Amino acid sequence: MKISLAHTHAAVDADLFAILVAEDELAGDALVTELDAALGGTLRAAIKDEEFTARKDATLAMQTYGKLPARKVLLIGLGPSAKAGVPELRAAAAKAAKTANADKATRLHVALRGAAAADDVRAATEGVLLGAYRFTKYLTGDRRPKKELAQAVLGVRGAKAPKPSAAQKQALAAGESVAAAVTLARDLVNEPPNELTPAALADVALNVARTHGLKSMVWDREKIRANGMKLLDAVGRGSRNEPRFIHLTYKPAGARKGRPKVCIVGKGLTFDSGGLCIKPAPGMGDMKSDMAGAAVAVGVMAAIGALKPDVEVHALVAAAENMPDGDAYRPGDIFGSLDGKTVEIINTDAEGRLVLADALAYARKLEPDLLIDHATLTGACLVALGTGTAGFFCNDDAVSQKYLDGARAAGEAMWRMPLVEELREGLKSDVADLKHTGDRYGGSIVGALFLREFIGDRKWIHLDIAGPAYLDRVSALGPKGGTGFGILSFLQYIASL
Ligand code: BES
Ligand code: MN
Ligand code: ZN
Fold first, then answer.
1. Is the pLDDT of residue 138 over 80?
2. The domain 180-496 is classified under which CATH number: 3.20.20.70, 3.30.450.20, 3.40.630.10, 3.40.50.1000?
3. Summary mean pLDDT of the chain
4. What pLDDT is recorded for position 161?
5. CATH 3.40.630.10 in the chain, residues?
6. Which CATH number fits domain 2-157: 3.30.420.40, 3.40.220.10, 3.40.50.300, 3.40.190.10?
7. Which of 81, 192, 265, 283 is the Cys-Cys partner for 373 at CB 3.0 to 4.6 Å?
C-alpha cells in the first residue's frame, strides 16, 4: 500500500474519507461543517439523529451520492480531546483502514486532528497499515479479496495547503518500518506449521539480516549439540523438523561510551503438540502460534535495521518443534543445559521454558544491560489476565516502570506480575538441580521463576504473551490470528534509551 501525507479539505477524492474527531471538538469542527454544507445539511442532521457524539470507537458513515468527490464519509470518534493520545489515534486510523477493507475501497483518505504532530503521523501510519492487514496467502479463487486498499493519504488540516514538514515525513517512514515489522511477525504466526518449520523460520531471519545489513548466525541441530544447548536439543528431538538457534546482531555505526545493549529472546516453537504429554485435540492447531515470541524478536530486528537507533540490539531465537516420537524427550529424563545446571523433566508440554533457558544463558554471556524475552509460555497466564493482556515479570523496578510507560503509549496491555519467592520451592528436584515445573497454582509465575535461574545477574523482563499473541477475535489493530503483540512496546522502549 502506498501511504502519503497531504492537505485535507472537503473536496478530497477517495473511496472512503475518514475524519477523526474528538468529542469536545465535534460541534465546532470546521471540516465537518464544510462537508455538511456540501451534503445539504444531512451530515449534522445524521449526527443529531444517530446521537453520534464522537465517543471513542464510535463511527458514523454516510454515502455522498455525487455531492462530494469522496464516495463515502466516515466520522470516527476519538473520545475527549484531553484523552485522545497516540494509542487512540492509532486505533482510530486502524478502524478507518478496516472499514476501507470491508467496503472494498481502494483509496482511503484519513483526516487527522489539527496540524498533526510527528508522533500523530507515525501512529496514524501504523494504524492504517496494521488495520488493513489480512492474511490471504492461502486463499484461492473466490476466497481471495476482490480489491485491496492500494492508497492511503493522511490528511493534515489547516487553512492553507502546507507542505508536509521534514519531521512529518520522517514520522511516516518510521511508521511504515514499524508496521512492516508487525506485519512480518503476524505473517510468521499465521503461517501454518507444515510450512513454517524451525529451518524456515531461520531462513526468514537470515533474510531480514540480509535486507538490513545485520550480522547473523544460525546453528543447526549438530551445532546446537556441539555448543551444549542440551535443553533446546531435548525439546527438538521428537521432530524431523530439526531445531535451530538464531542470533541476529544490530550494532550502530561509530563508537559511543556507555551505549546501551539489549538482548531480545524469543520462544520459537513452530508447533507445540505437547510432546509425549500430548495436548487435547481441540485447539491444538492454535499451537502454530507458539513461535510468536520468536516472531517478535525477528520482526523487531527488521524495524531496528531500518530505524537504526543508537542502541546495540541482539535477537536470539530458540526454534524447535515439540512432537511425540520414539526419539522424543520424556518425563523423568534429566538433561544438562548451556548454563550447566541439570534439569529433571516433569511434563514435556512445559517445553518453552527449556528452550528459553538455553537461549537466556547464551544471551546473558553477551552482557546486555537488559535481557528481555517474549514467550507464549503458559495457559495459566490466560487464566490470570485474560486473552488481551500480557504477563510482565521484571527483576528491576526502574526498568519495569519505564517499560510499562512505553507499553501504554504503544497501546499494548501488560500487567506486572510478582516473582513470588515461595513458589521457587516447587522447582526443587530430588535428582537434579531443578525441576522445570512446580505448583500448578501460580503457573505463569512458576514459569518465570524457572527462567530466572538462567539470567545470571542481568536486568531482565519476561513477557508471557500466551494471550495477546494470537487472538480468536478481531482486535483494535487487526483481524483474528497473529497480532505481533510486543513489537510496538519494545520499539518504544528502545527509542526512550
Ligand atoms: N505453549 C503453551 C502455552 C500456551 C497455552 C500458549 C495456551 C498459548 C495458549 C506451553 O508450552 C504449555 O503447554 N504450557 C503448559 C505448562 C504446564 C505443563 C506447566 C500449560 O500452560 O499448560
Ligand atoms: Mn507446551
Ligand atoms: Zn509451548
1. yes
2. 3.40.630.10
3. 97
4. 65
5. 180-496
6. 3.40.220.10
7. 265
- Residues with catalytic annotation? 279, 353
Q: How far apart are CA 228 and CA 150, in angstroms?
A: 49
Q: What is the distance between the terminal CA atoms of the chain, rounded to a whole angstrom?
A: 31
- State whether the beta carbon of 411 lies less than 6 angstroms from ligand 1: no
Each residue of 473-491: b (16+ CB within 10 Å) or e? eebbbbbebbbbbbbbbbb
**Alpha carbon of 289 to ligand 3 centroid (Å):** 9
Q: Whose CA is nearest to atom 8 of ligand 1?
A: 466
Residues of the chain with CATH 3.40.220.10: 2-157
**Ligand 3 center to residue 70 CA distance, Å?**
48
Answer yes or no: is pLDDT of 160 > 80.
Answer: no
Ligand showing the shortest atom-to-Cα distance for residue 274: 2
**Residue pLDDT, tens place only, 392-401:** 999 999 999 9
CB of 373 within 6 A of ligand 1: the answer is no
Asked if residue 245 lies in contact with residue 297, where contact means CB atoms within 8 angstroms, the answer is no
